[in-house]
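User: Predict structure, ligand magnesium ion.
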Amino acid sequence: MRNDIEKVLKTKEEIQDMVKLLGEQISKDYIGKIPVLICILKGGIVFLSDLMKNITIHVELDFMSLSSYGDSTKSSGVVRIKKDIDVDISNRDVIIVEDIVDSGLTLKYLDEYFMQHNPASVKICTLLDKPKAHKIDIKIDYTGFEVGNEFVVGYGLDYAQKYRNLPYIGILKKEIYS
Ligand code: IMP
Ligand code: MG
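Assistant: Predicted complex:
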C-alpha cells in the first residue's frame, strides 16, 4: 500500500492532535446538550471513531450512507441515499461528521435533507476540506485541515474502496488512478 502513496500529507500524530482539538471544541460548544453525531459512511467512520473518544459530553450516534463517487475520482454531483438515519432528529442538535468536503454538493444535499426534519441545529464537522474545489457556497463549522485539489486517501478515505485502513493521509500516485 505504501508504495502507491506519492506523499504523506498528514501523519498519524498530526491527525490525532487535530482530532483532539476538534473534540474539545465540540465538547465546549455543546455543553448542556446531547448532539447527534451523524457519520457519513464509509469514509467518515475512522474520523468519527477517534473524534467521539475526544468528546467529553454525552453524544448519540447515527449513520448515513450515500452514493457519491463510484470508483472514479470525480464528483458526480448526484447524491442517492443508500442508508438513512434511524434517530428522530426533530429538535435535536445534529453534527454531520464527514471525511472530506470536495465540491460541497453532498453536504448541500444533506443540509437540505436534514432541515426537512426540523432539527434544532445542523452543523458540519469535516476532517479535510478542499476549499478550492467548492462548487457552491458552503459553511463548514469544524474543519481539521485544508488541503489542495489532489486526490487523497487513508484514515477512512478510499480510492475504489481501498486505502481506508492507512493510519495517515496521503496523496495517491497519479498512475494508480489514471
Ligand atoms: P463532494 O460532494 O464533492 O463534496 O464529495 C464529497 C465526498 O467525495 C467525500 O465525502 C468523499 O467520500 C469523496 N471525496 C472527495 N474528495 C476525495 C479525495 O480526495 N479522496 C477520497 N474521497 C474523496
Ligand atoms: Mg464521504
